[in-house]
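Quick one, T. Sequence first:
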Amino acid sequence: MLPPRCSGILLHVTSLPSPLGAGDLGDGACRFVDFLQAASQRRWQVLPLTPTTAACGYSPYSSTSAFAGNVMLLSPQRLVADGLLENRDLADAPPCPPGRADYRTCEACKDRLLDVLWQRLAGKPMPDGFDDFCGRHAAWLDDYALFEVIRRARRERAWTRWPADLRDREREALAAVRRAAGEALTRVKLAQFLFHRQWTALRSYCNDRGIRIIGDLPFYVAHDSADVWAHRDCFKLDSAGHVARMAGTPPDYFSRTGQLWGNPVYDWTRMRKDGYSWWLDRMDRNYELYDLVRIDHFRGIVASWQVPAGHKTAVRGRWVRGPGADLLEAMSLRRPHPPILAEDLGTITAEVRELIRDYELPGMKPLLFAFGQAMPRSPYIPHNIPPNSIVYTGTHDNNTARGWFETEADATARRQLFSYLGREVPADQVAPELVRLAMLSPARTAIIPMQDLLNLDGQARMNHPGAKGPNWLWRVTDEQLSPGLAKHLADQTKAYGRA
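Structure tokens:
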């Protein structure tokens, strides 16, 4: 259940202003939080903070760990403030223009700075709190450190291509890695500790100003991840660790062959035997990071589309029942009234809606989905949105509101939009009007993508689902986070009872 009316902004950390190619957890993040406070906003929604790789286009939804943090988000300036780096260490950082992410440059720069930091710590004690962090997070951190060290030694080959003794986690093989690579393991853990410390400080900065963070939990995990390597019995794999059943979606109006994501699907029968311990541990980690957790593809908890390995499309898949209420009940037993947001977009069955209703979970209502043939009855049109919802103009997977109107909306959608607004508006007024509709809607929470608040066109789109790239590149500038914009949003927020 959501609190009384409020609003916030969707903006990923990589989209923040910073000097090193992508946003980080430092000064730019704090300035954005100050902007939120000045604009009377009480929510900040981010995308997953887990590690990203060049091989997956730096997508935050394809990670080598469901628990670890993305050390590319570390703020060098904060490391200087903590006495772990010096200002001169930052002098050779390459210039990166604002407004667009440069992940390769950012990654190389952060890796070099972590090298310098590690050398500075040689022979010295680890920072205060490091041992406690490693102890509290050993259940995932030890496996993640092993996975990263072996993966790097194997030139980032997938774990199914490692020598069989490492692939199969034979005790003596892993013990040999621990003996030979002790310092490398500690270095991975140190980077995770530094991420955790910086994120915890940023979250406290938000919470102290009345701002709560909405995080994002992808339903599936990447096959080439520490999680699948360390918990093979939780997934449907063959004897060599390869995917036996792939996740996806069936053919529909948008795709005659469906979508084939390729992630391994869960072995819910096996997971049920230990009370879904891996899933509950994953949720606990997310509760540690965020105030509210959005579960992507929530309908997968009820049933998932599974495709046998080897198929090139999703046509020959089938629906397989998931744990449903059994998993939600296990979550509720460990943490009563878990702070969960259900991503309930797409084709949602009555059983999924019933589960969401029974556990009083807020769902998502993007306004861009409202305009079409069934507009008056659409669940996304403001007059049909229930209070226990989060309304959006659009999500990170949509075009911007202005871009949608300019390049995607057909004549019917445009006509219905104008009818609903009561007047025709030009393209440069569509986003402000949709922001207004979101703010005045019955939904207790309204979240506006930063691009729509800035009234940007499709060039500012964050992601094109199914396209390899370029994605995840847009960034806001300090100049765009202006006092005038903050005042305008604050006035609107107060007018619609969300302040």
